[in-house]
Amino acid sequence: MKKPVLFLAALAFTVNVFAQHDVNMGIIPAPSSIVKANGSFILDKTVVLVSNEVNNAKTADLLNAFIVTKGGFALREAKSVPGGQRAIILTSKGAESLPKEGYTIQISTNQIKVTGSGPGLFYAVQSIMQLMPEKNADKITIQAATINDFPRFKYRGTHLDVARHFFPVSFVKKYIDLLASYKMNNFHWHLTDDQGWRIEIKKYPKLTSIGASRNGTVIGNYPGTGGTDDEVYKGYYTQEDVKEIVAYADTKFINVVPEIEMPGHASAAIAAYPELSCFPDRDTFVSDKTPWSGSRKGKHVQQTWGVFDDVFVPSENTFKFLENVIDEVITLFPSKYIHIGGDECPKEYWKQSPFCQQFIKDNNLKDEHGLQSYFIQRMEKYINGKGRSIIGWDEILEGGLAPNATVMSWRGESGGIAAAQQNHDVIMTPGSAGLYFDHKQSASPDEPLTIGGLASYAKVYAYDPIPKELTADQQKYILGVQANIWSEYIETPAKVEFMLLPRLYSLAEIAWTKPSNKDFKNFSEERVPLHLARLDQTNTNYWVPTAIGQ
Ligand code: TNX
């Protein structure tokens, strides 16, 4: 994590010069079109900030707050342009004819006129912020130009696993800030897993009093990451915390997609309520199929990584439990989508359980895969009944897709291709294409401990989320693209930042920018260094690009 400090500091001073020469004016993700003109707009304290629609006031304030940090002055805000005065004008008039989430910025010597509405205006302001240098200056020069911009995909997501390691509210907000700066619009919050249940559910207090704590992580199928058997690792979000985060994300036009895992990855819930297991009296087994040693009798939150046999039993009691959990989740999250996991559900306990075998017969299911499909379909019906839609990992294809499900394709692209061919919406997040940001970023021996393979920012950049196999009609089902940050080996906020950046920049560009505007040379040489230099100002950690293993 060594940083070439001098090099970056030098860049910081020349940022404006760089940004002006660059065809993309330093903006990430690259806009749809930029046409430069002669001259520049000088932003100083005589400029007036005009926004005459109520809805735009927040975005105007955001821009002004940013200018305070850059220029040390706030602009006077007004409802119209005082005669002859130089101004930044934010307006939604004319935005109806723009593409969804799109905007235009017209920069001349006497004004910057921004047109957009809601997210569009917000994204325009993100672009304007990127046109400013990161050093304080009482006069900021912005090159004259016309920028027209809109996204390629409507779903632009980044995920964070807070189950394997917990991250505090303050960091989740900082994470959301980073996503918003790069025009991402969905935060997929992985809230439950074998190693922790991280969201307060009032009806089931043991989910957090028991399910949110584990002993140190020391054994398992991968090398451990610290902690001893005597140490307790814990953390969860109260419902107030959740509301605060969802409301915060909303101000940044980010939808929060909660994930409640089922029927697998359920050990933390089972530790809290053993009756949710096929075998409530069986001790928790570790991943190599050996029971806990010594005094560890009964059910436990897992303290190793991996995939575990002890999954939800498909009893009426379990469905009632999950429905009650979903009821509380729905009141907290306005998201159209509720993610219900569906991945990596071993069928071993279902095979061994007489109850499950009888259940399969009674419901005329083919086998355990049929049971997985039944489980997801039944929960989908419940969630659809509440006016929401489900997302599941691509294992939900097993035994037949739930009728309205959106599929997240993580085991390569094949699940996504199959789902699109069945007219189902798809979000592409294939690990093989570099979208697993828990993988390492280069082949250097200095990389910190990670899981999985190599996902360099160049590899992420090269990915096109639309598979060639799809017909033009089927391509419409690709809603967008997402990167995932699983946190088995990510113990601290600083390491999340390190794993996220600069790969977030590549992700943003494949999610937003049209393929014909992509240019890795311009991206990596002109723009990424500028953006990384800015991170030094906000005390944000990142991976320093090297030539190794890209
Ligand atoms: C697979 S991706 C998982 C996660 C792990 C991840 C590690 C997916 C749906 N399941 O449980 O954390 O691999 O890369």
UniProtKB/TrEMBL annotation:
EC number(s) given by UniProt? 3.2.1.52
| Residue ranges constituting the Glycoside hydrolase family 20 catalytic domain according to the UniProt record | 153-514
The protein in question is named: beta-N-acetylhexosaminidase
Q: What family does this chain come from, according to its entry?
A: Belongs to the glycosyl hydrolase 20 family.
Any idea which UniProt keywords this protein has? Glycosidase, Hydrolase
Gene Ontology BP annotations: carbohydrate metabolic process; glycosaminoglycan metabolic process
GO molecular function list:
beta-N-acetylhexosaminidase activity
> What residues does the Beta-hexosaminidase bacterial type N-terminal domain cover?
25-149
Taxonomic source organism: Pedobacter insulae
Q: Which reaction does it catalyse?
A: Hydrolysis of terminal non-reducing N-acetyl-D-hexosamine residues in N-acetyl-beta-D-hexosaminides
